Predict the 3D structure of the following.
Amino acid sequence: MSKAINNLTDNNILGPIESQYHKETYNDEQLNKIADYYSKKSNRNYTLKDFYPKSALKEELVDKLII
């Protein structure tokens, strides 16, 4: 998936995003690239909107957990 987001680098940019020890998060440009990647791999058309909730969430901080 890292190559789908940025094919010009060998660095794993997903590690810090997925880690509970870093504050990095996905940005809209990265989410658009992920949606495009999965659209090409499936028979669905994914968009940036698929990554966001349909209604607003409460403004509260939660711990980032890895399962």
